[in-house]
Amino acid sequence: MGKGGYRGGFSGGFSGNQASMMKQAQKMQQELLKMQQELENTDFEFTAGGGAVKATVTGSRQFKSIVIDPEVVDPDDVEMLQDLVLAAVNGALKLSDDKTNESMSKIQGGMSIPGLF
Question: pTM of the predicted model, to two decimals?
Fold first, then answer.
């Protein structure tokens, strides 16, 4: 034992607790990368106006498609169509964000490591 009963000191390595935290951080990082790849390959669709407009985005928030039912196209009411398109796009983005947040919560499991993400 060293001076004053202190054991350990600075041997250049990690203590057991630090090594465990590093392993957990590495595992979380690997799971995060896997989740990101899965989300990038996932499509999120949302419809508005009872199916009149359907927007599809990827998990990486890229617009993939917008489908508009020709029956909803009314030259005298362009504002309604614009609102439906906005609702469909925003809904699809929200689905993507919700899935991303849900996946992140599962990976973190209540553990927070400042600066990791």
Answer: 0.66
